Amino acid sequence: MNKHTYTLLLMLAASLLLSMLYIPQFNILQGDKEIYRYIGLVMQKGGVPYRDVFDHKPPLIYFLNYAALLLGGDWGQWGIDTLLVLLTTGLFFQLGRKYKLPYPWLLPLLFNLMLRNFIICLGMGMTREYTTVLLLIFFCVLLGKYRYRYYFMGLLAGLIFFMQQDQVFPLIPLFGYALLPREDNLPIPARIGRAAAGFVTVTIPIILYFAFHNSLTYFWQDAFRFNFTWYTTTLKESMWDHFRKLKFVLDQGNYELPFMVAVILGLSALFFRATNKALIFVCIMSMALSLSPAFMGGRDIVPDNGLTFTHYYLPLAATLCFVLFAVFVFSTEPFIQNRKAQAIFGVLLCISLVYTTLQHATHLTPITRHEVVRSPEMEYLRQHKPGDYQLFELGYNDYVYAYNTLGIICPSKWVYQHFWVLYSNWDTDHVELRGIEEDLLRHKTTYVMDFARPGQFFIDPSAYASWHGFLQEHYDTIALPGLHESTLWKLKDTAP
To answer: Can you give the pTM of this predicted structure?
Structure first.
């Protein structure tokens, strides 16, 4: 084996080691991921996303979690995730070798360190982690000499779109670059046609799946219409509020130093000597657009919300590398091309992230110590395991973990419930809330975990009054050791 093969193996080993920090025993418990896992469970039991359970994400994340269950559950997902990142790392390393970077391992290492930053990524399994990986594969395909380059670009765009719609924004300038004159002399209509064929390759099976299950309307209403009419309209704040949030997350998440290095080098390269300023400009635009979802609505800058929604900044792990790659390859300034200078840039890019990784690796917290996993409510439910439709949780999405760990189906489709706290005009007539109550009575649901509090979960006092009145009429609280106020209720008809 030659030097480059050894280097590649070491880089893949580093990527694997970083993934080992998130094996199932140490992965971070987070409400969104629990919902994705739950919808995979619903599919395993014959249900259909959107029709049988509400969420507003595109469907690929559910299919992935369903596949993970078929492959062994949490370890199946870890395996899928790890292999995908290893593949991306290898492709990016080979791209650096192709363009004769002095340190082809440097940017793949930076990508892995940013992707596995525990402050930003919220562990394995978030949609933006997968789209970030796909973005970098797209970049490798764009600059690589692949026979079916445009088809694969369209295929990857389709995978990104159906994993997280707003993550297609960074692809727009890259597609524009792909239409510029190239050495293959392929006509522009042919390039567009091949890319469209790739996109359709992803789209058609998804459409057919929902058509076969008579669920196309649910698919459109939940995964698309809801996002356009509700999700991006929350808490409109000033642009300066968003920039303050951006600065806060970059600083607290140790992304700030690599971000500043990339921005300074990228902008400088536009004014200094470079052989491909078009690509450098396109990469800067892609990096800027990768942050655009964080500026949609204001759910991430609620007063006192602190370091939340950090995963919105995870795509920088790919797009920041775009900029640096373009600068390192195409800038002709001697101080940038110098090996020693790039080594110094490498230290600046990675040093804070290496520290963050070491801090995480030396303070791993088993998932069994999470407040949800060890809560009195979960202890009680493990001892009195309910069946399908016999448990409902309201007000704290992390407790969707209960459905997953017990392997049971919720009696209501409303497992994702942020609407009552985000939108003042959501369900003003309480139709959806009454629907939940009717589902509980219809299934004679035994247990309810209630974390809804007036002014915290229900911003509409009348909604809280309706829900709490229903609980008091049909359920009794269960006294649990260690809790001053129990959140677990039991149906009166089945109370001992």
So the answer is: 0.94
